[in-house]
Amino acid sequence: MTALEQGREDYTPLLEEWERRGLNRRHFLRLLLAGASTATIAGVLAACGDATPTAGVGTTGGAATGMTTTTAAGTTSAAGTTAASTTAAAAAATATSGPGAGAIRVGSPSASPIGSPVAGQVDYPGAGKFSTLEPVGKPGGLIIEVSFADGKTTNPMLSSDSASASYIAMMFTPVIGVNPDTGLPFANLATKVPTRENGLVSPDGLTYTFPLRNDVKWHDGRPFTAADVKFTYETMMNKALGSPRTSELVDRIESVTTPDDYTAVFKLKKVVAPFLVDNMVYGVVPKHILEKVSVNDIKTHPFSTGSPQTIGTGPFKFKEWVKDDHFTVVRFDDYFRGKPALDEYVFKVVRDANVVVAQLKTGEADYGSVTESFYAELNQQPNLNLLKYDTYSFTYYAYQLDPTKTTLFQDKKVRQALAYGLDRQAMIKSIRFGIGEVATGTEPVLSWAYAPDKMNTTYSYNPQKAQQLLEEAGWTKGPDGIRTKDGRRLAFTLWTNAGNKVREQYVTVMQQFWKNIGVEATPKTEEWNAILTRITETHDFDMFLIGFGWGVDPDQSTMWQTDAYEGGFNMNKYSNERVDRILAEALSTLDQEKRKQLYIEMQNIIMDELPSFIMDFPQALVGVNKRIHNLKPNAINTRWNAHTWWVDNPGGR
User: Fold this and answer.
1) Which residues pair with residue 385 across a beta bridge?
2) Alpha carbon 464 to its chain's center
3) What's the distance, Cα to Cα, between the start and end of the chain in Å?
4) Which pLDDT score is estimated for 46?
5) Domain spans of the chain?
6) Helix %, strand %, coil % of the chain (to 5)
7) Among 295, 340, 343, 650, which residue's beta carbon has the most beta carbons within 10 A?
8) Residue 543: which of 580, 583, 506 has the closest Cα?
9) Distance between CA 38 and CA 178 in Å, rounded?
């Protein structure tokens, strides 16, 4: 039986039943599999495009752009995005330093290498349009991806930005992948996706057994085994590591055991509806490289900073990293799905979005995210395909809620007033050229929990309401028009990442809108890695604006849960016991409609308390040179088939 036939045997009866009920194939696993989810990893911070996919191998559910998140050990998102994603996600308001940063590769359950680029075959169960790719006509050559954000780490356990997620996605492989067409989980380092139907998920939904491939090699030739999976997850669960995934994994996983060299068993503390795609999509790291390294030293170890010791199982292996200039990977001939077509892949770091566009136009770069202001111009560029699509990304700003740092935003009336004081529709029209939409609630437009008509508060532009709320909160205008209370001015610093022209324009316009209601905001920008440190480590801010990306699953624990302040993306120390309870209940509920109602309830609390304000859901814009084949950017999972990417005239660069 072929891998494809085996996959169909596993899933066809379930899919057929789902379709008989008139429901979407994408979500059937949420009801039938304990822990299945279509989510890509969210929580990857992205510095570049505000709507690029946030998921990335080795990121965490929820990718933040401009700051995944994972999206993706990784979405996403990137400088300017936080990873919660993603992996797939690659997204994030956005959360990546490039299209599809860190996106998950989808794999086949077969035990032998598949997807030979020579044959152009990508054989995995349930594959849709992405399963039919062009045969590789001319092996060799390279692709240059361009962005204005450099990564921070090459360690899938540590990444929280989309640029890092992009690098990691080319070099590392997760246990489970995500189909970019359907959002369904598929075997990657595993040989099967655990389900109750195939006996790999226990009846109580608490135990997952993963049969693993026995033909996978690390880049140094050593065999991959279950011990690597166990080591990866147990290390991520160690708080001393400082992983953005620690909080969530500790909350969910009781133990990881290895009955033999090619079986990993995860025992959960509770039923987690999206466990497979929320938590099994992080890039696995090599035990033999890191087992003797103190967990406190892993962050600074050569494995994590880019060196010959950066060893993965993915289609490409590390070559060199020149900080703030380029990151290069080269073909891994023994990749378990077959030798990649490309010789080399280069991530090129440039000054800003204008340089990205210039190099895409001249052909100096082949692939990159672009801002909305260039849409009309690039849409006529003869050497490029310009793609526009919805993602799970968003732009948001967060108030500092830690009273030891500032008390300006403790009163929710102040937070609400600032939201009412912004004309977001005008901002999208003038700055994003209408490419995107005003956020209503916290769920992205592609989510099955998106319910704008169920939101009690939507914050349409209302400066009169804003001023009324500030008056009620005791802030009155002084002689210079800026409000004061108890001798203190309503003045603060608003941070964003330098180089992202949309965000730079956003904070400038926000400054003026808020000045009109008596509030003094001072915009400041920093290089991507500096602002990442500010918002994820030192928490030294009054307010910041950045991008983030959720996964396909609507769980948003990584941003709103109290415990996610340490080991998550709750970077401003928000805490609400009711929200914590709702999030926990939703994760343990397999009925999708019940989960949706819980997420609606959660959104309404967040929209009332407004610890952070999600401003918009932009669309992704990416330019792809027409010389490239089989690279298909999408909102869920771009890099799953990187081993099949090829270029015309490979010797011509």
Assistant:
1) 624
2) 37
3) 43
4) 59
5) 393-619
6) 30, 20, 50
7) 340
8) 506
9) 7
Its sign, for the CA torsion 104, 109, 115, 116, is positive
CA 408 to chain centre: 31
SS (H, E, C) 575-589: CCHHHHHHHHHHHCC
- Which of these, 444, 402, 497, lies nearest to 45 by C-alpha position? 497
Report the alpha-carbon distance of residue 452 to residue 550 in Å, rounded. 17
Task: In whole angstroms, give the CA distance from residue 141 to residue 294.
Answer: 39
Dist CA 387 CA 385 (whole Å): 6
536 DSSP assignment: I
Q: What are the DSSP calls for 350-412, one per residue?
A: -SSHHHHHHHHHHTS-SEEE--GGGHHHHTT-TTEEEEEEE-SEEEEEEE---TTT--TT-SH
User: CB–CB of 267/253 below 8 Å?
Assistant: yes
Phi, psi of 329 (to 5 degrees): -120, 155
Cα torsion 203, 182, 192, 196 to 10°: value is: 10
User: Residue 404, exposed/middle/buried by CB under 10 A (0-12, 13-18, 19+)?
Assistant: exposed
CA 47 to CA 547: how far, in whole Å? 8
**Contacts (Cβ under 8 Å, ≥6 apart) of 482:** 489, 490, 491, 515, 518, 519, 520
Q: What is the pLDDT of residue 43?
A: 53
Q: Is 210 exposed, middle or buried (0-12, 13-18, 19+ CB in 10 A)?
A: buried
The dihedrals phi and psi of 322, each to the nearest 5 degrees, come to -105, 110
- What was the pLDDT predicted at 598? 98
pLDDT in tens, 42-80: 455 656 554 443 333 333 333 434 333 322 222 223 233
Three-class SS state of 483: strand
HEC sequence for 84-153: CCCHHHCCCCCCCCCCCCCCCCCCCCCCCCCCCCCCCECCCCCCCHHHECCCCCCCCCEEEEEECCCCCC
Report d(CA 81, CA 72) in Å as an integer.
11
Which residues lie below 8 Å from residue 121, measured CB to CB, with a gap of 6+? 114, 115, 133
Q: What is the 8-class DSSP label of residue 190?
A: B
Q: Which segments of 424-563 does DSSP mark as H helices, in order?
A: 424-431, 463-472, 501-515, 528-533, 557-560
Which residues make Cβ contacts (< 8 Å) with residue 253, sequence separation at least 6? 233, 237, 266, 267, 268, 269, 279
Are residues 78 and 152 in contact, defined by beta-carbon separation less than 8 angstroms? no
pLDDT of residue 358: 96
What pLDDT, on a 0 to 100 scale, did the predictor assign at position 218?
98
**CATH superfamily, domain at 393-619:** Dipeptide-binding Protein; Domain 3 (3.10.105.10)
- List of residues 6+ apart from 393 with CB closer than 8 A: 46, 50, 51, 52, 53, 54, 63, 65, 77, 81, 89, 91, 92, 93, 94, 95, 444, 547, 548, 549, 550, 617, 618, 620
Cα gap 327→568, rounded to integer Å: 27
pLDDT (0 to 100) of residue 590: 84
Rounded to whole angstroms, the Cα distance separating 272 from 595 reads 12
**What is the C-alpha to C-alpha distance for residues 451 and 265, in angstroms, rounded to an integer?**
37
Q: What is the CA radius of gyration of the chain?
A: 23
Distance CA 29, CA 268 (A): 18
pTM beyond cutoff 0.90: no
pLDDT value, residue 353? 86
Residue 625, helix vs strand vs coil? strand
The confidence score (pLDDT) of residue 571 equals: 92
Give the chain's residues under pLDDT 70: 1-132, 567
The span from the CA of 177 to the CA of 210, in Å, is 13
